[in-house]
Specification:
Length: 79
């Protein structure tokens, strides 16, 4: 089985908006704060919330690379 098929099959591949199966969790094995759970959902962590807020404040480009790539695959000319 190719490595890419293995990654897709077990959720290691992540699209531009979603987390993979393993990447969606924060594992607190070492340096765990008091009363912090061993496993957290990544979107509920403080660091991820701060990153999302900073991303919202940043000005968005008119077209991003992913959209341009999709246009290229669909053979669409973007103006």
């Amino acid at each position: 089985m190719p490595l890419s098929a293995f990654g897709v099959g077990f959720g290691l591949y992540k699209p531009e908006t979603d987390y993979g199966l393993i990447d969606g969790f924060k594992w607190n094995f070492f340096n765990r704060e008091d009363n912090a759970p061993l496993v957290q959902i990544k979107s509920e962590t403080k660091e991820e919330q701060q990153r999302i807020e900073q991303e919202k404040l940043r000005p968005q480009p008119k077209q991003d690379e992913v959209q341009l790539y999709r246009f290229m695959l669909d053979n669409t000319v973007a103006f």
